[in-house]
Design brief:
The protein is an alpha/beta fold. It folds into three domains: 82 residues, 2-Layer Sandwich (Phosphorylase Kinase, domain 1); 240 residues, Aminoglycoside phosphotransferase (APH), C-terminal lobe (Aminoglycoside 3'-phosphotransferase, Chain: A, domain 2); 136 residues, no CATH class. The protein is built from 16 helices and 13 strands. The protein has a five-stranded antiparallel beta sheet with strand order 1-2-3-5-4, sandwiched between helices. A four-stranded parallel beta sheet has the order 11-12-10-13. β4 and β5 form a beta hairpin. It is globular.
């Protein structure tokens, strides 16, 4: 990669090349820093996927759809250079600002662009260029439903009649596969794949697109678990999307709404299957922690829409809700009889930098814990995280999905539990818990905040949080 970039830009023009953290694929991205500009370079051995991306990008660029400009493709087709769209996604924005009017306007702008993308692609795109499935047909729908069945229902030991459920899945898949119109379907249209550059939304990771029903993409965006859009917000954005669509094509709105409800369900079940695989089997904390949000979406769907045609699936969803499955994946709240009265214990949780030495013990008892976070991959090694802290969502996502932070925290919580239970029962008043890393900026900050939240929820004790390095800087990075 370095030779390719040096040959293209000129070795003397490149200040540095930073590898970016991998997400869910094997593609490796780099940020290339020149004197006055940055670019994104990508290397992928999946040449078939690359060719689809090249074709889609060229096609959508020619139709004024906001996708990154494709700057250059290496002769071996495994490496290429893209426009840099920055580091802020729509999901980052909503988690930073909340459900503000300005965020809502960006959602609407993105949806207007989605309509243009779906129609342009549906009318003129060559779907034979798709590297995986070319259409979201009955078989593709069945694959999503079985994903949910094997990686969520079975893993959580939810009982169901296999033969009858398979019959309903066949019926549901056939209905979804016959929905018209079938135009371009982005496939993973969600906040992480909408980058915000100078206030404008741009689309990325659309190479998995195919021919399919329009409603799937709007369902994916509005019902994204991490975004937690309120019901009124979902409805307003859905109405905006349909109004934009009406300006382009004619459709039966009643039938469109009915099919939308089913496609929302298909997407929500597929997402739970992904959370089950990544979280329960691969033990990735980010996905485990998302399961309660995914379940809340399914329960909200049940309260809004009907499944009269599919009684077996309806029974399963009822069991998922009435069985209090969500609590299985939430942090436990202690019910110890020793905690019925207000504990005297006060816990100080803090982050620090080993470079600056251990924090002082103000309690005078000389006890407590010091945990070393340096065994966890440091986000500070990656350029896009260097100016962020462990409280910024991109760093949180990185630690939860790309490292063993979940295992590390679980072990530290188990150790701390022993002392907290004992200290409360014996009436002790002070406990200090410290997390250190190299700079006191990323890993230790995240761990201290996570431990404080855990202790407050489980024990209802007084918890003070200090971030030694960041507090001293007044959180100005």
């Amino acid at each position: 990669m370095q030779i390719y970039l040096e040959n293209y830009f000129g070795k003397e023009q490149i200040i540095k090349i930073d590898p970016l953290a991998k997400a869910g694929s094997d593609r490796q991205y780099y940020r290339v820093h020149l004197q006055d500009q940055t670019y994104i370079a990508c290397e992928s051995k999946n040449l078939e996927e690359n060719e689809t991306f090249f074709y889609f990008t060229s096609f959508f660029s020619s139709h004024q759809i906001p996708v990154p400009a494709l700057i250059d493709i290496h002769v071996d087709r495994s490496k290429y250079i893209l426009q840099d769209l920055g580091t802020s996604s729509l999901l980052d924005l909503i988690q930073l600002e909340g459900h503000t009017e300005s965020v809502k306007q960006i959602y609407k702008h993105a949806l207007s662009n989605l309509v243009a993308m779906q129609i342009a692609g549906g009318e003129k795109l060559d779907f034979s260029q798709c590297y995986a499935a070319s259409a979201f047909d009955k078989n593709a729908v069945l694959a999503d439903l079985n994903y949910f069945k094997y990686y969520f229902l079975d893993l959580n030991k939810i009982n169901y009649n296999k033969a009858l459920l398979n019959d309903e899945f066949e019926k549901l898949a056939a209905r979804i596969g016959s929905i018209e119109p079938q135009l371009f379907m982005f496939r993973d249209f969600q906040g992480r794949n909408i980058m915000i550059k100078e206030g404008q939304p741009f689309f990325i990771d659309y190479q998995g697109g195919m021919k399919g029903p329009l409603q799937y993409d709007i369902a994916s965006l509005l019902w994204q678990a991490k975004a937690q859009l309120p019901t009124s917000g979902k409805q307003e954005l859905y109405t905006h999307y349909k109004n934009e669509l009406k300006n382009k094509i004619s459709f039966n709105e009643t039938l469109f709404d009915s099919n939308y409800s089913l496609l929302v369900l298909i997407r929500l079940l597929q997402v739970l299957g992904a959370y089950g695989l990544r979280g329960m089997i691969e033990k990735r904390h980010h996905f485990l922690s998302s399961i309660p949000l995914g379940l809340e979406n399914v329960f909200e769907w049940r309260s809004t829409y009907s499944l009269n045609e599919f009684p077996i699936l309806e029974k399963i969803l009822v069991e998922m809700e009435s069985g209090n499955l969500k609590s299985k994946f939430q942090e436990p709240v202690s019910s110890s009889p020793n905690l019925e009265s207000i504990p005297k214990l006060k816990i100080l949780v803090q982050s620090f930098s080993f470079k600056k030495g251990l924090p002082d013990d103000e309690s005078g008892n000389g006890g407590g814990y010091v945990f070393d976070c340096r065994g966890i991959l440091n986000p500070g090694r990656f350029d896009e995280y260097k100016k962020l802290t462990g409280r910024d969502q991109p760093v949180i996502d990185f630690l939860e999905s790309e490292t063993k932070m979940g295992d590390f925290l679980k072990h530290t919580q188990n150790i701390v539990d022993i002392s907290v239970n004992d200290y409360i029962s014996r009436g002790f008043e002070n406990l200090q818990i410290s997390f250190g890393c190299t700079g006191g900026q990323h890993r230790s900050v995240y761990c201290a905040d996570a431990m404080a939240k855990y202790l407050k929820q489980k024990y209802k004790v007084e918890v003070e949080v200090r971030h030694v390095v960041q507090d001293a800087k007044n959180w100005v990075n």
